[in-house]
Amino acid sequence: MEKQKKYSISDYLFFILPSCLGLFFFLTPMKFGEKTDIAVGFVAKKILSFLSQSVSLFSHIEFTLINALLFITIFLTFVFGVVAKFLPKRIVYKYPALLFFHVPTFWFIVRSLGFFITMSCFFKIGPEFIWHKETGTFLLQSLIPSLFCIFFCAGLLLPLLLDFGLLQFVGVFLTKVMRPVFTLPGRSSIDCLSSWVGDGSIAILLTNKQYEGGFYSKREATVIATTFSFVSITFCFVVLAHAQLEHLAGPYYLTIILSGLVAAVVCPRIPPLSWVEDSYYTKKRVEEDVKGLSARQLYQIAIDKALSHAKKSFSFKGYFMNAFKSVLEMWTGVLTPIMCFGTISLVIANYTPIFKYLGLLFYPLLLLLQVPEALEASQAMILGFSDMFLPVIVSSSIKSDFTRFVIASVSVSQLIFMSEVGSLLLSSKMDIKFKDLVAIFFLRTLITLPIIVLCAHFVF
Question: How far apart are alpha carbons 406 and 2 in whole angstroms?
Fold first, then answer.
């Protein structure tokens, strides 16, 4: 065993203080008034509340700051994207700012469609089904402003969790657990926990950054992003409240945890996740072999890795440069794809019978599991692919508390919904295919539904 290196008190502080702040912001559920949230989510909501105030211009033009910022961001993303796409490549590669907006043709089309959909919703022009309050305008008013603020906070604060040795320290100890149970490296434990108790969008951003840094293989990043990126605890209870079952908050969340853990063990071991290649975005990071080591030896390796990484990473200028670059990448690379994919999904859900017919695939299973009002519940099962809140909206007419409990639990456990998580995954660097998202959605539903129904039989 190599002798432990010597570190100064400042080296320890560079590791401990930022890491503790990162744990506080991303992993610590707290009471804010009557609501429970993690600190980064609370800060993002406060910023959104401030930016949502109306401002008057020339005493007759009224708008909100968040709308102005969104318009400017999305408009400039489109303009610079067009410039970067059609200028000669030798000029684009000469200017890093233009290269920032240069994307493959498919994503240029997606961003362009997202821009035109956004403009349609801003100015209420074009086909009404695009800017209707339940399709594009719903995303533009309810989701995109929230993501805009979350991306800002997460981009500035994620380095506290990623860059100061915490993942290196924890990863050494938890490799023995994460690898055999979830087929993941030990360092992913913090990511998975943050993904579970935090916000799904923040979780995917965290995982994507780790993948880009070469800390996860493509398979590992895809497993984490499609298995652990739940909606926030607060939103789980919003779903339950809409189902009029607030008195069952405890059994409801325990049901979600149990079904989610079973899916997290099973899904990585079956296609399509088991077929994703273990390739790396950048140079592969070697995982520490900890077999047969004592607790003292593990600690020595863990603290050495953590302090070395923190010492190498610490730089105020570098921190803020990388943080603001991350924020811009998220704003320019994710907002318009979400408007594109999310609006298309909601239009299909609201204006066509496709989801209703697809929902019939679950009808025999719901009958077999003796779920009351199985036909009505079957449509709710499939609507979760479009937006996770749609199932409980549709189920409001269902009289059975048992069935509404099942729908509220499944809608959260399905995890893949195109109005947010699905669109984020498609626009990430993980190169996840749409057909794989469809397959994962159906598999998660089939795995979690029987467990949730079993739990419901105990509750009712």
Answer: 54
What are the pLDDT digits (tens) for 110-160? 889 999 999 999 888 999 999 998 888 988 888 788 888 888 887 888 788
Q: Which helix (H) or strand (E) holds 338?
A: helix 316-351
Residue 35, Cβ density class (10 Å: 0-12 exposed, 13-18 middle, ≥19 buried): middle
CB 459 within 8 A of CB 251: yes
> DSSP secondary-structure letter at 369?
T
3-state SS class at 298: helix
**Residue partners of 295: CB distance under 8 A and separation at least 6:** none
Q: Which of 390, 404, 388, 406 is nearest to 448 (CA)?
A: 406
Whether the upstream peptide bond of residue 127 has omega within 30° of 0, thus cis, is: no
195 and 228 in contact (C-beta within 8 Å)?
yes
Tens of pLDDT, residue by residue over 148-199, are 888 888 788 878 877 788 877 887 777 778 888 888 887 787 777 766 766 6
Write the DSSP symbol of residue 281.
Answer: S
Scan for tokens 């239009």, then name that residue. 347
Contact criterion met (CB below 8 Å) for 168 and 310: no
| Cβ atoms of residues 30 and 37 within 8 Å | yes
Question: What is the pTM (predicted TM-score) of this model?
Answer: 0.74
Strand-pairing partners, residue 54, are 64
Strand partners for 32: 35
The tokens of 25 are what? 């912001």
List the structure tokens of 425.
């995954």
Residue with tokens 């204006």: 351
User: Are the C-beta atoms of 146 and 49 separated by less than 8 Å?
Assistant: no
Give the DSSP per-residue string, 68-116.
Answer: HHHHHHHHHHHHHHHHHHHS-HHHHTT-HHHHTT---HHHHHHHHHHHH
What's the rounded Cα separation, in Å, for the pair 388 and 190?
25
438 burial (CB, 10 Å; 0-12 / 13-18 / 19+) is middle
- The amino acid at residue 25 is F
- In degrees and rounded to multiples of 5, residue 36 shows phi and psi of -105, 135
What is the DSSP pairing of strand 35-38 with strand 54-57? unpaired
Please, which pLDDT band fits residue 285 given cuts at 50, 70 and 90? low
Other CB atoms within a 10 A radius of the CB of residue 366 amount to: 23
Question: Contact 413/259 with Cβ under 8 angstroms?
Answer: yes
279: which 2 tokens? 């390739």
Q: How far apart are the first and last CA of the chain?
A: 57
User: What residues are paired with 56 via a beta bridge?
Assistant: 62
CA-based R_g, the chain, Å: 23
Name the residue among 301, 12, 260, 28 with its Cα closest to residue 176: 301
| Helices and strands in the chain: count of H runs, count of E runs | 24, 4
